[in-house]
Specification:
Layout: E1 4-10, E2 16-22, H1 34-53, E3 59-63, E4 66-70, H2 77-97, E5 102-108
Parallel strand pairs: 1-5
Antiparallel strand pairs: 1-2, 2-4, 3-4
Helix pairs in contact: 1-2
């Protein structure tokens, strides 16, 4: 079954330090899939916020159907927390609305 799989990575203190998104929702044809579009917008906006707004340099890997972002820097902690947690809220809402097309796991490390 086609599905988007999301992994959120948190520190032992609960702060999000990164994420991995892979796969396709398969809800509709390419270019018309609102689930894929919603997940893409949320996750890509986080990368933009971290890099262009805060000037940070997370480790980002992109390829078709795959995006990962891992932040090891400690600057702007409150702003970083707001950006990541807002993304997490949006992703949880999408998972709740479309559980057959997207799933999310959280890992603490």
């Amino acid at each position: 079954m086609t599905m988007i799989r999301i992994e959120l990575y948190r520190t032992l203190h609960g702060e999000i330090k990164g994420f991995l998104v892979k796969g396709h929702a398969g809800m509709a044809e390419k270019g018309r899939d609102i689930v894929c579009a919603a997940v893409s917008v949320l996750t890509q906006t986080v990368v933009l916020g971290l890099t262009q707004y805060l000037g940070l340099q997370p480790e980002v890997k992109r390829k078709k159907g795959y995006l990962s972002c891992l932040l090891t820097q400690q600057e702007h902690r409150e702003e970083v927390r707001a950006i990541f947690e807002t993304m997490a809220l949006g992703l949880k809402d999408i998972v709740g609305q479309y559980p057959d097309f997207v799933q999310m796991e959280e890992h603490r490390r």
